[in-house]
Fold this protein.
Amino acid sequence: MSAQQSASTAVQQTDPLALEKTIASSLKAAFPTAVKTANVVRRRRMRIECIPEATLDVLKYSKNQLGFDHLNYITAVDWGKAFDLVYNLWSIQKMVELEVKTKVAHGEKDELVDFPTSTGVYQAADWFEREVYDLFGIRFVGHPDMRRILLREDWTSHPLRKLYDRRGYPIDPKLGQPPPQTWRINEGKLSLPKKWLEEDPEIEENILTLNFGPHHPSTHGPMMVRARLDGEIIIDADVVIGYLHRNHEKLGENNTWIQLLPYPDRTNYVSPINWEWAYVMAVEELAGVEVPERAEYIRVIMAELDRIQSHLMYLATAGDAVGQLTGFVWGLRDRELVLDLNEMVCGARMLPNYFRFGGVNRDLPKGFAERTRQVVDTVEKHLEEFSYIYEKNPVFLKRFEGVGVLSPQDAVEWGAVGPGLRASGIPFDVRKDDPYSVYDRFDFDVPVGKHGDNLDRFMMRVEEIKQSISIVRQALKDLPSGPYQGKAPTLSIPEGEASSRVETPRGEGSYYVVSNGSPRPVRMKIKSAAFINVYVAKRMMIGQKLQDALVILGTWDPVLGEIDR
Amino acid sequence: MSYLDELRGVVTIIKWGQKNSLWPLAFGIACCAIEMMQTGASKTDAERLGMLMQRASPRQADVMIVAGTVTKKMAPVVRRLYEQMLEPKFVVSMGACATSGGPFRDLYDVVDGVDDVIPVDVYVPGCPPRPEALVYGLMKIQELIDAYYEENQNKPVSGKLEAPSVKPSLSG
């Protein structure tokens, strides 16, 4: 929505942006010199710019006085001479988003830039800051463990800076370092966390460090966990990710907007359609594209089917994690039904590439509605069968009930999103709290857990499948006729920046895109839900028994494509 | 006379067994891994053809299915796993990424094809390949196993069987 539109609606009746304006003005009042601008972008979204020295104070004030308790992400945008350092905060009580931006100057060469850490304010900043350090070379002073997180540790460059091309070579060879070119067995050895190196050697004697991964059947992909064991108890854990870092963000800067359409599928290959939606929604906001009503309904149907198949995949892998192979086969069997629907709609089974700016690729085929109704009926019937091998099975309950309890305070502080956060009793669902598309027209519940244990996180998925089935039925009933594709730009996207929020099966996913009016984005940041959920899982493993650690990790449903991007 | 000649009957049985019970390394990296799982699940059920009894350990596996994009961080691991597998071993490169880098070609952390790291026997195209395509690729491996034993049948006894050669500049 443009500024004019929002201003004109504000004049009419009661001001819908009253809360946002109060927050923006109170920030401006608290920091009259430090906060340069404070704008309301649209409903539930504000953006402020402040000077670098005051950033930490602004974050502290936002958290303690204004209730922004959830850190969504930290990222940077390279403008050649300086970085825009972006902190994205969210308030679960007020349901508003705040973007704090600050400028950090950097030299021509690829040299590290220092900036104070915000881990003292938000604990979730830990991994986000490591990621920014890894890809941009901003060193956060005071961070407890400033190591590379995604790239191999023998990298010397920071490839998301603009002075590197897409292959990681400096455009001017004098200014930067080339990437490593070899892959011998012992290359890229991992370093230990700083805390482990400083440990007392006497304690060291009784501790076993156990590695599992990156090739391990229970880590859901190439991920490595290094556990410090005292007997059977994990006293500290380090999760190594980045084995599937496919450079989606650099790719975003090197392709045109429309060329990027197939890539969100591959960001999270278990729930591709929700991620397509996240990307398409961000670009639509930037370009001000209107989406026809029929297209919105088609999108809802496809996204909810996508959620069903993604959660069925979770039901399958949850069985796999505790040796319940029947569940594994059953989950994949039901998932096939939804994949067949994908194939019916767009020709591809798994990665459909179905959404377009302003609509969808093609209309729903003949017979789709009947077939979909049959499929959701079948899935609903099969959920009953699943309950006999899962939540009504005493052997399964032993591993899930009361194990891996996450308190609501920790869940928020560590930045958890999605079913895991809701299992801890916090009813935060983007579809309800920040409704996008036509979700406000459907009648559905947000399931919330009581205990925050493994079983609650498991049951969230089962309940969400039931809710999704209900949404699909309602949407099929109300499906309007009309065009399925609106008017949309092909090449040039207006200057500006936008971010989308979508409730993906693993939590809130978002794309933060910055355009300077050229056919290619200046920056495309993917906010991954699984990334921060794995961080939460890592914190949760500490104090647990070794055999429970992988089950806990599994209940967060990690998908490595989304974690590493 | 070759030792294999003396043991011709045994070799026939080994060949028959190996060909019809391929044990791939359960080695999912990215999107293709999901299709690989789906290949082993009920609809396609590659196990009824004796070809997808996935093993978690490279020491028990005959075939490595590289299912996904190999990054520079992952490449040393792939290489190590390959070298831990016992002879005779075969490699299937599943999907566009493992074959050539696919949609992620020419990016800073992506290896442009797993054949830069380990030798590949069969390439399965697709992004990701359908389960049927993977089954076809594994049937090609069965043909290769036939050829492998025929080729080595009359070789003189010289210690171990020859390993496939690797690009010298990249070997570890």
User: Anything to note?
Assistant: Chain A touches chain B through 49 residues (CB under 8 Å).
